[in-house]
Design a protein that fits this description.
By secondary structure, this protein is α+β, with helices and mostly antiparallel strands. Helices cover 41% and strands 18% of the residues. The chain folds into three domains: 58 residues, OB fold (Dihydrolipoamide Acetyltransferase, E2P) (Beta Barrel); 73 residues, DNA polymerase, domain 1 (Orthogonal Bundle), CATH 1.10.150; 51 residues. Belongs to the RuvA family.
Length: 206
């Protein structure tokens, strides 16, 4: 079983990154590919290998906490690897854990693909069973909102964010509603930033 891969990032797509190590390009699915940056330095990606009848897929994470929560989520009935990635792309591990521990179904159903039944199942299966992940979480007040990724107003960065959101399952109708707000925000500067602002807006549409 792989624990991590250290290599050079060669490609970023809305769904996966390609990390080259010793002449092999590893296709790695990750919650937010645009959180990574192509650069000369070697990068470490923590790996989860998912085997099914027709494929062997690699899922990658920037932190051990993120990978651990992913592994917990895919144990919940109704949540597969794709659904777990969407949850992690929208919120950070601390926010998801807090919602589970506080039995905040209303918060959990805001994530893509999570309905009331799945939210309840997440709470039943995971509350009090998240081990060391709980030690790093400060339970928020009921007024706290979901902070997401980082920010900037470049057209290319905006388009990358829109592509990533489309890959997460958001519709053209939803993205059309929030696009003007993103374009008018002159404080944004990175794809991560556009993702953060966009996801906050999309959650409010629910």
């Amino acid at each position: 079983m792989y624990d991590y891969i250290i290599g050079q990032l060669k490609r970023i797509t809305p769904e996966f990154i390609v990390l080259e190590q010793q002449g092999i390009g590893w296709q790695i699915y990750t919650p937010n590919p645009f959180a990574f940056r192509i650069k000369e330095e070697l990068q470490q990606v923590f790996i989860h290998m998912h085997v099914r009848e027709d494929a062997q897929l690699l899922y990658g994470f920037r932190s051990l906490d993120e990978r651990e929560l992913f592994r917990k989520l895919i144990m919940v009935s109704g949540i597969g690897p794709k659904g777990a990635l969407a949850i992690l792309a929208t919120g950070n591990p601390g926010q998801v854990i807090s919602a589970i521990e506080m039995e905040d179904e209303a918060f959990l159903v805001k994530f893509p693909g999570v309905g009331k039944k799945t939210a309840r199942q997440m709470i039943l299966d995971l509350k009090g069973k998240l081990g060391s992940l709980l030690e790093k979480v400060e339970l928020p007040s009921s007024e706290d909102e979901l902070p997401l990724f980082g920010v900037n107003p470049n057209q290319q960065e905006l388009e990358e964010a829109i592509l990533a959101l489309t890959a997460l399952g958001y519709s053209d109708k939803e993205l059309t509603k929030i696009r003007p707000i993103l374009e008018e925000n002159d404080q944004l500067s990175t794809t991560e930033g556009y993702m953060k602002q966009a996801l906050q807006l999309l959650l409010k549409l629910k």
